[in-house]
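Appendix B, record 7
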Amino acid sequence: MIYSYTNQYIEAGCDEAGRGCLAGPVFAAAVILPASFHHPLLNDSKLLKAKDRVLLRTYIEKHAIDYAVSKVNEREIDKINILNASLRAMHIALDKLKVRPEYLLIDGNRFHAYRDIPHRCIIKGDQKYGAIAAASILAKTYRDEYMQSLSTQYPQYGWSQNKGYATRAHRLALQEQGPCKHHRRSFKVKNQLRLF
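Structure tokens (predicted):
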């Protein structure tokens, strides 16, 4: 069940997209929803059809009190690791909010404290709280759009379909073409050349 708010605080939900990819940045979003926010399709972005994510993105951006999306690029991921890059992307998104939240709802089980704002980590939070679900949708749709734009420059990797994830087609392309500058070197791309 998706809840809009947990209590009386101004809450921001945070989530990321692209942690498990071989290529491209990790994106994160922070979203503050009104207590009355409701949409029957709202859920974890991974459980939604692409067309429903796009529809919800428009609805969220129109009805949210505030939202922000950010990214951390491949070189930074390689430098500080994907977990720290994901958390940094969340912090950057929070920095971009115009409305200061009083409480943070974080998807997952890890977070670095942000300023003096209390937070709660929630496993599968994007299936439980509306603000986190909304953040997951924005992070996912912005990242997918970004990878779609990159795919025009690098059509050989099939990013318009796989969005940088380790699909068989992507790994075959790596075997044949080698990695490009958008691949994450810390993900040991060479190991991905071995096909299942």
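Remarks on this record: The chain has a mean pLDDT of 92. The chain has one domain: 11-191.
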